[in-house]
Each structure stands twice: as C-alpha cells, then as structure tokens.
Amino acid sequence: MTGDEFVRRIRRLGRERGIVVRLESRKGKGSHGRPHYGDRFTTVKDRRQEIGQGLLAAMIRQLGLSREDIRGDGGKTG
Questions:
Q1: 3-state SS record for 7-68
Q2: Whole-angstrom Cα distance, residue 48 to residue 3?
Q3: Each residue of 16-26: pLDDT tens digit?
Q4: What is the mean pLDDT of residues 6-12?
C-alpha cells in the first residue's frame, strides 16, 4: 500500500468511528506527512511510494490500530 492509500484508509476509519483524522503536511523539502488519528500520530515518508511491511506495522502500532482496522474492505467478509 502507498502512503496516500494508508492516509485514505485511516481517514475512512476515523469517519466510521467518529475520530478526528487530519494530515499535517511538512513544510520544506520532501513529501513527508504526519497523519493524526485522534491524539496519536505517525509519519508517512513519501506518500506516493509503497510502504514496506515492517514500517507499515510500526505506523499502525503508533496509531493504536491493527492490520484488520486498515484493510481495504473495511474488515468485511463475504
């Protein structure tokens, strides 16, 4: 998943759960961003690039979420 897709998924999850989600774009060089999920945050390096599995797991933990929370289908089965 790319950084942009990660941000879209946590925004959708926030809407579903009534949690404020905002993206703080870093001023200056690069395309880093800091998505805030309620009172927690993480840093997304390059939002156009794929996120490695280890980094993705760390970002999910930093936001207090699980992999199931950010699944593309909203965790729905069938």
A1: HHHHHHHHHHHCCCEEEEECCCCCCCEEEEECCEECCECCCCCECCHHHHHHHHHHCCCCCH
A2: 6
A3: 999 999 998 86
A4: 95
Separation between Cα atoms, residue 75 and residue 41, nearest integer Å: 22
> What is the rounded distance in angstroms from the CA atom of residue 43 to the CA atom of residue 65?
15
Distance linking the first and last C-alpha atoms of the chain: 22
- Alpha-carbon separation of residue 23 from 5, 6, 12 (angstroms): 13, 11, 13
Query: What gap in Å lies between CA 39 and CA 66, rounded to an integer?
Result: 17
